[in-house]
Amino acid sequence: xKKRRRFSTQKAxxxxxxxxxxxxxxxxxxxxxxxxxxxxxFYESEIHSIDDLSSFKQTETVTWIDIVGASQIEVxxxxxxxxxxxxLVLEDMLNTSHRPKTEDYGEYxxxxxxxxxxxxxxxxxxxxxxxxxxxxxISFLENDFxxxxxxxxxxxxxKSKIRKTGADYxxxxxxxxxxxxxxxxxxxxxxxxxxxxxRVIQEVDATQVKEIQGLRTDLLFIRKAxxxxxxxxxxxxxxxxxxxxxxMHIYIRDxxxxxxQIIDTVETYREMVNGLMDIYLxxxxxxxxxxxxVLTIISTIFIPxxxxxxxxxxNFKTMPELDLDYGYPVLLLFMLLIVLGMLRFFxxxxxx
Length: 352
Prior knowledge:
By secondary structure, this protein is of the alpha+beta class. It contains eight helices and seven strands; from the N terminus they run E-E-H-E-H-H-E-E-E-E-H-H-H-H-H. The protein has a seven-stranded mixed sheet, sandwiched between helices. It is rod-shaped, with a radius of gyration of 35 Å.
C-alpha cells in the first residue's frame, strides 16, 4: 500500500465547524464540474463561479456537482451555503482521515467512503464524500483521478437508465462504482498472493518476508476501509429516508451483498497471507535443520578421528606402534575405513 504524503493542519482548540483541510495535497487545484440532466436534456460544464450554480438549485432536473481538491476551501463553503449544508458536514468532508459513515440530515444524506484505486502496481486509498439531496448530488474528492468517469459516460448516453431516474439512483451509481473498485484492488492482491505463493514453495529468500508483510498491510488497509462501508449501506437499506425511493432498496441491497462478498474475500486473503508466512518460516526452519544436520554429521565423523589422532599424539616413551614401518599409513587407512563405515551407516538410516 503506497503511503501518500499527508499535509496536516493543527485543529486543536478551534470551534466546531471550522473549515480547514486536513490531509489534502495543496498542489491539487480545486475544480468544480456540474452535470445537469433528465431523460431529455443533458448539460455538462466546468464551473468557474459558484454563483453559476444557483440556477440549478430550483430546477426539476437532476444536478451533479463534482468537486475536486481543497486548495480553495471557500469554494466548498459557498456551495455549502447555497445548498444549506451544515458546517459540521463540510468539516468532515475536509478531513481525509475521517472514518466512513452515513448520516441523514432530513433534506440530504451525507456519506463518507474510502475509494481504492490501482496506480503503478500500488494501491491508493483516498476519501470520497457524497451528499444526496432531493434533486442534486454533491461529490467531493481528494484528487482528480476520474474515478467517476464511467458514470459520466453513462450519463452522456440518452439511453442510460440514470438519465431516467432521480438523484437517489445517481448516488447509488456512484456508490456502486466505489464498491466495484474494491473488486479490482482485491483481484490485484489475489494475483500477488498467487505469484508469491509459487515462489515461496519453490525456494525462499530474504525478500519474500517483506513482500508478505506488504500484502498484510494492503489487506489491513482494505479491511479498515470496507468494514464500515457494510454498516453504511446497511443503514441506507434499513432506513426510511424520503430521499430514497422504495425501488432503490433492492439496488442498495445488491451493493450490500457485494460489500459482504468483498469482506469475505479480504478475510480469505488474510488467512492465505498468514499461511504464506507460516510456509516461509517453516522453510527457513527446515533449511536451518538441514544445515545443522550436515554440521552434526561432520562433527560425528570427526569424533573417532579426533580420538585416534589424540591417542597417537600422546607423549609417552613406550608406544610400540610408533616404531612400525607402516604405522602411519595403516592409521590413515583405518581412519578412512571409519569414515566410509559411518557414511554408509548414515545413508542406510537415510540421514544423508
